[in-house]
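Morning, I've got a small favour to ask if you have a moment. It would help a lot if you went through both lines with me. I owe you a coffee for this, so here goes:
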Amino acid sequence: MSAIDLVLDPLFRLPLITGLAIALVLPLIGALLLLRDEWLAALGLAHLATASALLGLAFGLPAVLGAPLGALAGGAFKSVAGARGNLAYGFMILFGWSALFLIAANTSLGATLGHALVDGQLYFAGALELIAALALAGLAGAALPRLMPRLLRARFFPHDERANRLPAHRWHLSFDLLTALAMAIGTATVGLMGAFALVLVPAWIAFRIAPGWTWTLVICALTGVGGFLLAYLAALALDQPFGPVLVAVLIALAAAVETGRGLIGRTRLKRPPQVR
């Protein structure tokens, strides 16, 4: 059976749609995180989500329901504390990593399931994971158009909020919680590193080649969805775990873009000056 036949198989239909929704949302959030110099948020919140997902599994909760608890708590604490930059997320990584393996070592779940959460459980996605991913996509579609102008203004005109006494904490908190929820659902399905790669790599590619913000969002979405589809087909065809394949595909896309930029730059340098 070919990879296309496997994708069309009803058994893999729910994981495919679930992953597509996540691959569309996470890169858009990644563009805003990279703009705010907070890209490490993805990894910090993902570690908290993985730890709380494992703790939830110990109490009988599905991973997609347990994961948001830790991520939302981390996002809310960071926003209320007024922390900016990557330092707060660095401590989240350390705390989440420690909690993850302590929970794995002291419950009946063991380290195997902890590693499964890190690698991703997309192939086991069912109706609950699909509903969570589609709800996330709907929430992001409603919230991001309202949040983006405010976050862009806060980045490029940081004194505007204070000068005009704007309630900036509202949209910063809203974005932090949306990021936490997205990372939690992403981590519970495509895995810790897969979710982090979907946030970081498409945004990095877009920032390297996009001529403006609108194109940045378009390139992020196309890279995320395209990279996901390539990884999904490759993982099914080669019978490989999805998370590592997704990370490898996204890194290969980033390398191809950077190589292409280098070739274009060298071609321009070699052009003889035009005589008028």
User: Anything to note?
Assistant: The two ends are 62 Å apart (CA to CA). The CA atoms of residues 154 and 160 lie 7 Å apart.
